[in-house]
């Protein structure tokens, strides 16, 4: 009797573990991946001046544009990340919240959400995901080190290659 139970437990385990791993992998592949594999962020390089004008942004301030989609599976994680950023971003950083449709109407191609665009003193400094990794967590935040000056950029960082939690969008 004990031998039968042991054999049954082994069979159940042998089926359950691979099935669970397969399902977990399928879910993760859907939302975790390269943020912009087609390099669509590159089009932002020539559009940020227009974005400054259309949104009436000051050439002397730092502005973070949050591009969110409530229907994206990564949205809840992003809300937690936003709460963190509200607490730690330096005073005076302007934060705007824009939808994909609104930015597309302004001529901005959004490859995936959630996405941030950082404009500082009228220049594009960063565009891409909030964080590296599948969880979009504050521990792997990309924005704060740039805004606080911990990371110095030679020019705009159009972050297409980072693996992150994202919902890809069609052009």
Oligomerization status of the protein chains: single chain
CATH class of the largest domain: Alpha Beta
Question: What's the tally of helices?
Answer: 5
How are the strands of the largest sheet arranged?
Answer: 3-2-5-6-7
Beta-strand portion reads: 15-25%
Radius of gyration equals 20 Å
Provide the succession of SSEs: HEHEHEHEEEHEEE
In total, the number of strands is: 9
State the separation between the terminal residues, measured CA to CA: 61 Å
How many domains in all? 2
At CATH level 2, the architecture of the largest domain is 3-Layer(aba) Sandwich
Shape: elongated
Mean pLDDT: 87
Poorly predicted regions: none
Helix percentage: 25-40%
Superfamily (CATH H level) name of the largest domain: Glutaredoxin
Domain DUF6436: 50-168
Pfam families: DUF6436 (PF20029)
InterPro entries: DUF6436
Protein name: DUF6436 domain-containing protein
């Amino acid at each position: 009797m004990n031998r039968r139970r042991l054999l049954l437990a082994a069979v159940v385990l042998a089926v359950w573990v691979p099935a669970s791993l397969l399902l977990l992998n399928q879910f993760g592949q859907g939302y975790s991946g390269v943020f912009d594999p087609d390099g669509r962020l590159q089009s932002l390089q020539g559009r940020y001046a227009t974005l400054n004008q259309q949104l009436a942004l000051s050439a002397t301030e730092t502005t973070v544009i949050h591009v969110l989609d409530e229907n994206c599976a990564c949205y809840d994680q992003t809300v937690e990340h936003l709460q963190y950023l509200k607490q730690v971003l330096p005073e005076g950083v302007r934060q705007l919240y824009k939808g994909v449709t609104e930015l597309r109407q302004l001529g901005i191609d959004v490859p995936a959400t959630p996405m941030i665009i950082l404009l500082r003193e009228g220049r594009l400094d960063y565009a891409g995901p909030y964080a590296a990794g599948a969880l979009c967590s504050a521990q792997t935040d990309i924005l704060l080190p740039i805004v606080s000056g911990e990371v110095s950029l030679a020019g705009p960082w159009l972050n297409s290659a980072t693996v992150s939690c994202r919902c890809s969008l069609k052009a």
